[in-house]
Amino acid sequence: MPVTADFTKLVDKAYQDKSLTELVDAPVAALAGVSDGDAKLLKDAFNITTVGDLGRNPYFRTASALVALTGGAK
């Protein structure tokens, strides 16, 4: 089933017309707000190089699940 979504605020301009598969395979710096320096730190610390690596990382998944369980409260 085809999925369409507006990614203009989520990814850098160069990646806004990419498919979901292409976005998952894109460098983590393709995400809006993630700089090349941030991407280097993620690679050095967690060996994360793509958006998919970030989304599948157990530490980030655990943190996201904990936040979701609190209803996003801060």
Written description of the protein model:
- By secondary structure, the protein is mainly alpha-helical.
- It has one domain (1-73).
- It contains four helices and no strands.
- It has helices at residues 20-25, 36-46, 51-56, 58-69.
- It starts with 19 loop residues before the first helix and ends in a 5-residue tail after the last helix.
- The model has no long low-confidence stretch (mean pLDDT 93).
Topology at a glance:
Blueprint lengths: L19 H6 L10 H11 L4 H6 L1 H12 L5
- Which H/E pattern describes the elements? HHHH
Number of E-state strands: 0
Give the overall shape, derived from the CA principal axes.
globular
Give the proportion of residues in helices. 40-55%
Overall number of domains: 1
Task: Give the averaged pLDDT, no decimals.
Answer: 93
Summarize the main sheet: none
* Uncertain residue ranges: none
